[in-house]
Design a protein that fits this description.
The chain is an alpha/beta fold. The protein has two domains: 155 residues, NAD(P)-binding Rossmann-like Domain (Rossmann fold); 92 residues, ProC C-terminal domain-like (ProC C-terminal domain-like fold), CATH 1.10.3730.10. Helix 5 links the parallel strand 7 and strand 8. The two termini are 33 Å apart.
Length: 266
C-alpha cells in the first residue's frame, strides 16, 4: 500500500512517524505533500524521501490519501489535486467538520473515510472515532483502522453524525481534562505548594486514577464511593461540587461543543 499524507502539520507528522514506527508501511511507500517549502526541507532532513511541495503524477500511484489539512484549505487544495485522483483511490479525512459529501463533491472518488483523532494521538495514546462511505470495503476499513490504531485506539461508527459527538467528547476532551487539572494546580499553590510540587501532585493523581480505571472493571461511580468515606475530606469536596451543579454544567458544556460541531459541519 502506498500512502500520501497531505499536510505536514502536527497530525500529518504524527501519522507519518506512527506508521513507520509501528511497521505499518515501508518508508519508501509513504509520501508527503506539504505546502510550505521549509517543512519539505525539514521532512527530508529527518529521513523521509518522498516529500513534495506540489502535486504531480506521483499521486496517481497512491492507494490511500490522508487529508491532514485545515478545513478552510480545501477550497485551494481540491482544484489542484482532483485531476490526479481516480475513483479507485481512498480518501481518509481528519478535517474537523468537513462531511464526506463535501469531499465527494470536490474530489472524483466515493471511497471516503472520515476520522476524528484527538491530541494524545501524538504520543500513541489517542482516541479516534471514524466512519466510512459504503463504497469502502470491509477489508479497506480494517486496514485503515489498523493504521489509526498506531496512534492509540479507535471506534468505528456507521452513522457519520456520530463524529460530531466524538468531536465534543474525545476530540475536545483533553482540553476539559487540562481545565480541571489547571484549577487543581492553582488551588494547590494557594494551599502553599510550589508550582512544581502542585503539578506533580495533580499530574500523578490523574495518571494513577486513569490507569486504575483501565486495569479494573469497576465503574467511575464505584471508585468515587470507595474514595469518598462518610464524613471525610473527599465527601466534603463532592458535596460542594454537587451544590454548584458541576456535573450538570459539564453536561451543558459538552452539549454546547456538540452543537458547535454540528454548526461547523453545515
Amino acid at each position: 500500500m502506498k500512502i500520501l499524507i497531505i499536510g505536514g502539520g502536527n497530525m500529518g507528522k504524527t501519522y507519518a512517524d506512527s506508521f513507520i514506527a509501528n511497521h505499518a508501511i515501508q518508508k519508501d511507500d509513504l509520501y508527503i505533500l506539504e505546502h510550505f517549502e521549509e517543512k519539505v526541507t525539514y521532512f527530508k532532513s529527518i529521513g523521509f524521501k518522498n516529500v513534495f511541495h506540489q502535486p504531480a503524477d506521483y499521486i496517481k500511484e497512491i492507494d490511500l490519501i490522508i487529508l491532514a489539512i485545515k478545513p478552510q484549505d480545501i477550497q485551494a487544495l481540491f482544484p489542484i489535486i482532483r485531476n490526479y485522483i481516480s475513483e479507485n483511490q481512498t480518501i481518509l479525512s481528519i478535517m474537523a467538520g468537513v462531511k464526506m459529501s463535501t469531499i465527494r463533491q470536490g474530489l472524483p472518488t466515493k471511497k471516503i473515510v472520515r476520522a476524528m483523532p484527538n491530541l494524545p494521538a501524538q504520543i500513541g495514546m489517542g482516541m479516534t472515532g471514524f466512519t466510512s462511505a459504503e463504497e469502502v470495503s470491509k477489508e479497506e476499513v480494517f486496514n485503515i483502522q489498523n493504521l489509526l490504531n498506531t496512534t492509540g485506539k479507535s471506534l468505528y461508527f456507521d452513522d457519520e453524525s456520530k463524529l460530531d459527538a466524538v468531536t465534543a467528547i474525545s476530540g475536545s476532551g483533553p482540553a476539559y481534562v487540562f481545565y480541571f487539572m489547571d484549577a487543581m494546580i492553582n488551588t494547590a499553590t494557594q494551599m502553599g505548594f510550589t508550582k512544581v510540587q502542585a503539578e506533580m501532585l495533580v499530574e500523578q493523581t490523574f495518571v494513577g486514577a486513569v490507569n486504575l480505571l483501565n486495569i479494573n472493571t469497576i465503574s467511575c461511580k464505584e471508585w468515587i464511593s470507595r474514595v469518598a468515606s462518610k464524613g471525610g475530606t473527599t465527601e466534603a469536596a463532592l458535596l460542594k461540587f454537587g451544590e454548584a451543579n458541576l456535573a450538570e454544567d459539564i453536561q451543558v458544556g459538552l452539549q454546547a461543543a456538540l452543537q458547535r460541531a454540528v454548526e461547523l459541519g453545515k
